[in-house]
Write a structure and sequence with these properties.
By secondary structure, this protein is α/β, with parallel strands linked by helices. The chain contains twelve helices and 14 strands.
Length: 351
Protein backbone atom coordinates (compact mmCIF):
# COMPACT_ATOMS: atom_id res chain seq x y z
CA UNK A 1 0.00 0.00 0.00
CA UNK A 2 1.26 3.46 -0.94
CA UNK A 3 0.32 6.78 0.64
CA UNK A 4 1.08 10.29 -0.60
CA UNK A 5 1.19 13.07 1.98
CA UNK A 6 1.37 16.74 0.99
CA UNK A 7 2.97 19.05 3.54
CA UNK A 8 4.91 16.03 4.77
CA UNK A 9 7.49 18.08 6.66
CA UNK A 10 4.83 19.87 8.69
CA UNK A 11 3.29 18.88 11.99
CA UNK A 12 0.37 16.77 10.77
CA UNK A 13 1.99 15.61 7.55
CA UNK A 14 5.02 14.19 9.33
CA UNK A 15 2.87 12.50 11.96
CA UNK A 16 0.79 10.87 9.22
CA UNK A 17 3.94 9.68 7.46
CA UNK A 18 5.26 8.07 10.65
CA UNK A 19 1.90 6.50 11.52
CA UNK A 20 1.39 4.84 8.14
CA UNK A 21 5.03 3.77 7.84
CA UNK A 22 4.58 1.90 11.12
CA UNK A 23 1.66 0.07 9.52
CA UNK A 24 3.82 -1.07 6.62
CA UNK A 25 2.78 1.49 4.00
CA UNK A 26 5.17 2.88 1.39
CA UNK A 27 5.32 6.58 2.20
CA UNK A 28 5.81 9.46 -0.22
CA UNK A 29 5.87 13.11 0.87
CA UNK A 30 5.37 16.38 -0.98
CA UNK A 31 7.00 19.45 0.56
CA UNK A 32 9.05 22.45 -0.58
CA UNK A 33 9.64 24.10 2.83
CA UNK A 34 7.25 26.90 1.91
CA UNK A 35 6.70 27.48 5.62
CA UNK A 36 10.18 29.02 5.79
CA UNK A 37 9.16 31.45 3.01
CA UNK A 38 5.95 32.35 4.81
CA UNK A 39 7.41 32.65 8.34
CA UNK A 40 11.16 33.04 7.95
CA UNK A 41 13.94 30.84 9.36
CA UNK A 42 12.01 30.05 12.56
CA UNK A 43 9.33 28.35 10.48
CA UNK A 44 11.83 26.19 8.59
CA UNK A 45 10.81 22.51 8.43
CA UNK A 46 13.87 20.98 6.75
CA UNK A 47 14.87 19.46 10.08
CA UNK A 48 11.62 17.48 10.04
CA UNK A 49 12.13 16.35 6.45
CA UNK A 50 15.59 15.03 7.37
CA UNK A 51 14.13 13.34 10.46
CA UNK A 52 11.59 11.47 8.29
CA UNK A 53 14.32 10.41 5.87
CA UNK A 54 16.28 8.99 8.81
CA UNK A 55 13.51 7.18 10.69
CA UNK A 56 11.22 5.91 7.90
CA UNK A 57 12.76 3.16 5.75
CA UNK A 58 12.20 3.92 2.08
CA UNK A 59 10.60 7.33 2.66
CA UNK A 60 10.64 9.31 -0.59
CA UNK A 61 10.57 13.11 -0.48
CA UNK A 62 9.25 15.00 -3.50
CA UNK A 63 10.38 18.62 -3.68
CA UNK A 64 7.20 20.04 -5.20
CA UNK A 65 4.99 23.11 -4.77
CA UNK A 66 1.30 22.16 -4.82
CA UNK A 67 0.68 25.29 -6.88
CA UNK A 68 2.58 23.55 -9.70
CA UNK A 69 -0.48 22.03 -11.40
CA UNK A 70 1.33 20.03 -14.06
CA UNK A 71 3.86 18.80 -11.53
CA UNK A 72 1.13 17.59 -9.18
CA UNK A 73 -0.82 15.90 -11.99
CA UNK A 74 2.34 14.18 -13.24
CA UNK A 75 3.34 12.93 -9.79
CA UNK A 76 -0.08 11.44 -9.03
CA UNK A 77 -0.16 9.76 -12.43
CA UNK A 78 3.24 8.20 -11.79
CA UNK A 79 2.68 7.12 -8.19
CA UNK A 80 -1.00 6.09 -8.30
CA UNK A 81 -1.17 6.09 -4.47
CA UNK A 82 -3.76 4.07 -2.56
CA UNK A 83 -4.52 7.06 -0.30
CA UNK A 84 -3.83 10.80 -0.31
CA UNK A 85 -3.56 13.02 2.75
CA UNK A 86 -3.44 16.71 1.90
CA UNK A 87 -2.01 18.83 4.72
CA UNK A 88 -0.01 21.44 2.76
CA UNK A 89 -1.29 24.99 3.29
CA UNK A 90 -0.59 28.61 4.06
CA UNK A 91 -1.81 28.36 7.67
CA UNK A 92 -1.83 31.89 9.11
CA UNK A 93 -4.89 34.13 8.98
CA UNK A 94 -2.78 37.14 9.99
CA UNK A 95 -0.19 36.61 7.26
CA UNK A 96 -2.81 35.92 4.57
CA UNK A 97 -3.91 39.57 4.53
CA UNK A 98 -0.45 40.61 3.33
CA UNK A 99 -0.10 37.85 0.71
CA UNK A 100 -3.66 37.22 -0.57
CA UNK A 101 -2.59 35.80 -3.94
CA UNK A 102 -0.08 33.38 -2.40
CA UNK A 103 -2.63 32.41 0.24
CA UNK A 104 -5.44 31.65 -2.21
CA UNK A 105 -3.19 29.99 -4.76
CA UNK A 106 -1.79 27.70 -2.05
CA UNK A 107 -4.92 26.90 -0.10
CA UNK A 108 -7.70 26.94 -2.69
CA UNK A 109 -5.94 26.33 -6.02
CA UNK A 110 -3.40 23.94 -4.50
CA UNK A 111 -6.21 21.85 -3.06
CA UNK A 112 -7.99 21.84 -6.43
CA UNK A 113 -4.76 20.69 -8.07
CA UNK A 114 -4.49 17.79 -5.62
CA UNK A 115 -8.15 16.83 -6.01
CA UNK A 116 -8.17 16.89 -9.80
CA UNK A 117 -4.88 15.01 -10.02
CA UNK A 118 -6.37 12.37 -7.72
CA UNK A 119 -9.56 12.15 -9.79
CA UNK A 120 -7.56 11.61 -12.97
CA UNK A 121 -5.09 9.09 -11.55
CA UNK A 122 -6.79 7.21 -8.69
CA UNK A 123 -10.45 8.31 -8.33
CA UNK A 124 -11.27 5.54 -5.85
CA UNK A 125 -8.45 6.42 -3.44
CA UNK A 126 -9.48 8.04 -0.13
CA UNK A 127 -8.59 11.75 -0.06
CA UNK A 128 -8.29 13.43 3.34
CA UNK A 129 -7.79 17.19 3.46
CA UNK A 130 -6.89 19.30 6.48
CA UNK A 131 -9.35 22.17 6.62
CA UNK A 132 -9.79 24.54 9.59
CA UNK A 133 -12.37 25.76 12.05
CA UNK A 134 -11.83 29.21 10.48
CA UNK A 135 -14.32 28.13 7.81
CA UNK A 136 -16.97 29.14 10.37
CA UNK A 137 -15.55 32.67 10.40
CA UNK A 138 -16.36 34.66 13.50
CA UNK A 139 -19.95 33.32 13.60
CA UNK A 140 -19.12 31.26 16.74
CA UNK A 141 -18.64 34.61 18.52
CA UNK A 142 -22.41 35.16 18.21
CA UNK A 143 -23.01 32.34 20.68
CA UNK A 144 -23.87 33.81 24.12
CA UNK A 145 -20.87 33.59 26.44
CA UNK A 146 -20.24 34.07 30.13
CA UNK A 147 -16.98 35.30 31.59
CA UNK A 148 -15.31 33.10 34.20
CA UNK A 149 -12.16 33.82 36.18
CA UNK A 150 -9.76 32.32 33.63
CA UNK A 151 -11.85 31.72 30.48
CA UNK A 152 -14.86 32.55 28.39
CA UNK A 153 -17.51 29.84 28.42
CA UNK A 154 -20.66 29.04 26.44
CA UNK A 155 -23.64 30.44 28.34
CA UNK A 156 -26.18 27.92 27.01
CA UNK A 157 -26.34 24.14 27.28
CA UNK A 158 -26.86 23.84 23.51
CA UNK A 159 -23.16 24.33 22.79
CA UNK A 160 -21.68 22.71 25.91
CA UNK A 161 -20.42 19.85 23.71
CA UNK A 162 -18.89 22.31 21.24
CA UNK A 163 -19.45 23.57 17.70
CA UNK A 164 -21.14 21.00 15.40
CA UNK A 165 -20.53 20.52 11.68
CA UNK A 166 -23.99 21.97 10.98
CA UNK A 167 -22.88 25.42 12.16
CA UNK A 168 -23.08 27.97 9.32
CA UNK A 169 -19.95 28.85 7.36
CA UNK A 170 -21.12 32.00 5.52
CA UNK A 171 -22.18 35.58 6.36
CA UNK A 172 -19.35 36.12 8.81
CA UNK A 173 -15.78 37.48 8.86
CA UNK A 174 -13.33 34.68 8.12
CA UNK A 175 -10.04 36.47 7.48
CA UNK A 176 -8.54 36.09 3.99
CA UNK A 177 -7.05 32.78 5.14
CA UNK A 178 -10.43 31.53 6.32
CA UNK A 179 -12.03 32.41 3.00
CA UNK A 180 -9.40 30.54 0.99
CA UNK A 181 -9.87 27.53 3.23
CA UNK A 182 -13.66 27.71 2.76
CA UNK A 183 -13.07 27.44 -1.00
CA UNK A 184 -10.82 24.42 -0.47
CA UNK A 185 -13.21 22.82 2.05
CA UNK A 186 -16.23 23.11 -0.25
CA UNK A 187 -14.24 21.80 -3.22
CA UNK A 188 -13.20 18.73 -1.20
CA UNK A 189 -16.86 18.11 -0.44
CA UNK A 190 -17.87 18.71 -4.06
CA UNK A 191 -15.40 16.19 -5.47
CA UNK A 192 -16.99 13.68 -3.11
CA UNK A 193 -20.59 14.58 -3.87
CA UNK A 194 -20.29 15.39 -7.60
CA UNK A 195 -17.69 12.83 -8.68
CA UNK A 196 -18.44 10.19 -6.03
CA UNK A 197 -14.91 10.29 -4.62
CA UNK A 198 -14.01 9.25 -1.08
CA UNK A 199 -13.18 12.65 0.36
CA UNK A 200 -13.35 14.37 3.71
CA UNK A 201 -12.40 17.78 5.07
CA UNK A 202 -11.16 17.87 8.66
CA UNK A 203 -12.00 21.23 10.22
CA UNK A 204 -9.16 21.42 12.69
CA UNK A 205 -9.13 23.36 15.91
CA UNK A 206 -5.67 23.66 17.48
CA UNK A 207 -3.71 20.76 16.02
CA UNK A 208 -0.46 20.51 17.88
CA UNK A 209 2.38 18.30 19.01
CA UNK A 210 6.14 18.06 19.49
CA UNK A 211 6.97 18.29 15.76
CA UNK A 212 5.37 21.72 15.34
CA UNK A 213 7.65 24.54 14.15
CA UNK A 214 5.54 27.10 15.99
CA UNK A 215 5.83 30.84 15.28
CA UNK A 216 3.76 33.78 16.51
CA UNK A 217 1.62 33.83 13.37
CA UNK A 218 0.81 30.13 13.55
CA UNK A 219 1.17 27.45 16.20
CA UNK A 220 -0.61 28.47 19.42
CA UNK A 221 0.70 25.97 21.98
CA UNK A 222 4.03 25.25 20.32
CA UNK A 223 4.90 28.95 20.15
CA UNK A 224 3.58 29.66 23.66
CA UNK A 225 5.71 26.89 25.18
CA UNK A 226 8.72 28.00 23.13
CA UNK A 227 8.33 31.52 24.54
CA UNK A 228 8.15 30.20 28.08
CA UNK A 229 11.30 28.12 27.75
CA UNK A 230 13.30 30.75 25.87
CA UNK A 231 12.22 33.69 28.03
CA UNK A 232 10.51 35.41 25.08
CA UNK A 233 7.63 37.80 25.67
CA UNK A 234 4.30 36.36 24.50
CA UNK A 235 1.75 38.84 23.15
CA UNK A 236 -1.87 38.31 24.14
CA UNK A 237 -4.24 39.74 21.54
CA UNK A 238 -7.54 40.80 23.09
CA UNK A 239 -10.34 39.03 24.96
CA UNK A 240 -8.41 39.39 28.26
CA UNK A 241 -6.38 36.29 27.45
CA UNK A 242 -9.47 34.23 28.24
CA UNK A 243 -10.07 33.04 24.66
CA UNK A 244 -10.53 29.26 24.58
CA UNK A 245 -9.14 26.68 22.16
CA UNK A 246 -9.42 22.90 22.14
CA UNK A 247 -6.15 21.14 21.44
CA UNK A 248 -5.54 17.79 19.79
CA UNK A 249 -2.23 15.94 19.52
CA UNK A 250 -1.01 15.22 15.99
CA UNK A 251 -0.90 11.50 16.88
CA UNK A 252 -4.65 11.46 17.47
CA UNK A 253 -5.17 13.34 14.20
CA UNK A 254 -3.20 10.67 12.34
CA UNK A 255 -5.19 7.94 14.07
CA UNK A 256 -8.46 9.44 12.86
CA UNK A 257 -7.15 9.79 9.32
CA UNK A 258 -6.23 6.10 9.39
CA UNK A 259 -9.77 5.22 10.50
CA UNK A 260 -11.27 7.24 7.64
CA UNK A 261 -8.97 5.64 5.08
CA UNK A 262 -9.99 2.18 6.30
CA UNK A 263 -13.69 3.01 5.93
CA UNK A 264 -14.00 6.10 3.72
CA UNK A 265 -17.11 8.15 2.99
CA UNK A 266 -17.99 10.60 0.23
CA UNK A 267 -17.84 14.36 0.73
CA UNK A 268 -17.75 14.34 4.54
CA UNK A 269 -16.72 17.05 6.99
CA UNK A 270 -15.62 16.58 10.58
CA UNK A 271 -14.75 19.07 13.31
CA UNK A 272 -11.38 17.85 14.51
CA UNK A 273 -10.13 19.03 17.87
CA UNK A 274 -9.46 18.00 21.42
CA UNK A 275 -13.02 18.59 22.61
CA UNK A 276 -13.98 20.03 25.95
CA UNK A 277 -11.52 17.92 27.97
CA UNK A 278 -8.54 19.29 26.02
CA UNK A 279 -9.68 22.91 25.97
CA UNK A 280 -7.86 25.75 27.65
CA UNK A 281 -7.61 29.52 27.57
CA UNK A 282 -4.36 31.41 27.09
CA UNK A 283 -4.29 32.23 30.81
CA UNK A 284 -4.83 28.55 31.68
CA UNK A 285 -2.07 27.58 29.22
CA UNK A 286 0.29 29.99 31.00
CA UNK A 287 -0.41 28.29 34.31
CA UNK A 288 0.08 24.78 32.97
CA UNK A 289 3.41 25.44 31.25
CA UNK A 290 4.69 27.31 34.32
CA UNK A 291 3.92 24.20 36.39
CA UNK A 292 5.81 21.97 33.95
CA UNK A 293 8.84 24.16 33.21
CA UNK A 294 9.15 26.13 36.42
CA UNK A 295 9.59 29.29 34.32
CA UNK A 296 7.44 32.37 34.75
CA UNK A 297 5.51 33.26 31.58
CA UNK A 298 6.56 36.64 30.19
CA UNK A 299 3.65 38.27 28.42
CA UNK A 300 2.18 41.58 27.37
CA UNK A 301 -1.47 42.32 26.73
CA UNK A 302 -2.34 43.87 23.35
CA UNK A 303 -5.85 45.30 23.51
CA UNK A 304 -6.95 44.60 19.94
CA UNK A 305 -7.97 41.04 19.08
CA UNK A 306 -6.97 39.40 15.81
CA UNK A 307 -9.41 39.91 12.95
CA UNK A 308 -11.99 37.12 12.78
CA UNK A 309 -10.55 35.43 15.86
CA UNK A 310 -12.70 33.10 17.96
CA UNK A 311 -13.46 34.02 21.56
CA UNK A 312 -14.42 30.49 22.56
CA UNK A 313 -14.09 27.52 20.24
CA UNK A 314 -14.52 23.89 21.25
CA UNK A 315 -14.98 21.13 18.65
CA UNK A 316 -18.03 18.90 18.96
CA UNK A 317 -16.58 15.41 18.43
CA UNK A 318 -19.85 13.46 18.49
CA UNK A 319 -20.12 13.01 14.72
CA UNK A 320 -16.54 11.73 14.47
CA UNK A 321 -17.09 9.25 17.27
CA UNK A 322 -20.44 8.11 15.85
CA UNK A 323 -18.99 7.43 12.39
CA UNK A 324 -15.72 5.97 13.72
CA UNK A 325 -16.36 4.48 17.18
CA UNK A 326 -12.89 2.89 17.33
CA UNK A 327 -11.38 6.38 17.50
CA UNK A 328 -10.99 8.50 20.63
CA UNK A 329 -8.67 11.09 22.15
CA UNK A 330 -5.66 9.33 23.70
CA UNK A 331 -3.40 12.32 24.55
CA UNK A 332 -4.54 14.58 27.38
CA UNK A 333 -3.89 18.31 27.51
CA UNK A 334 -1.08 17.80 30.02
CA UNK A 335 0.42 15.04 27.82
CA UNK A 336 0.50 17.51 24.93
CA UNK A 337 2.17 20.25 26.98
CA UNK A 338 4.76 17.84 28.39
CA UNK A 339 5.67 16.39 24.98
CA UNK A 340 6.07 19.82 23.35
CA UNK A 341 8.15 20.98 26.33
CA UNK A 342 10.41 17.92 26.19
CA UNK A 343 10.87 18.12 22.40
CA UNK A 344 11.78 21.79 22.53
CA UNK A 345 14.34 21.16 25.28
CA UNK A 346 15.82 18.25 23.31
CA UNK A 347 16.19 20.36 20.13
CA UNK A 348 17.54 23.38 22.05
CA UNK A 349 19.55 21.95 24.96
CA UNK A 350 21.41 25.18 25.71
CA UNK A 351 18.40 27.51 25.77
Amino acid sequence: MRILVSGSSGLIGSEVCIHFAAQGWEVHGIDNNQRAIFFGPKGDTRWNQHRLEQIIPGFIHHELDIRDREGVIKLLAELKPDAIVHTAAQPSHDLAATIPFDDFDTNAVGTLNMLEATRRAVPAAPFVALSTNKVYGDAPNEIPLKELETRWEYATAEFWGGIPETFRIDQSKHSIFGASKVAADVMVQEYGRYFGMNTCALRGGCLTGPSHSGVELHGFLSYLIKCNLAGIQYNVYGYKGKQVRDNIHSHDVARFIAEFIKNPRQGEVYNLGGGRENSCSILEAFTLIEQISGNKMLHEYVGKNREGDHICYISDLRKMKAHYPAWSITKSLRDIFQEIHDAWVERNPHK
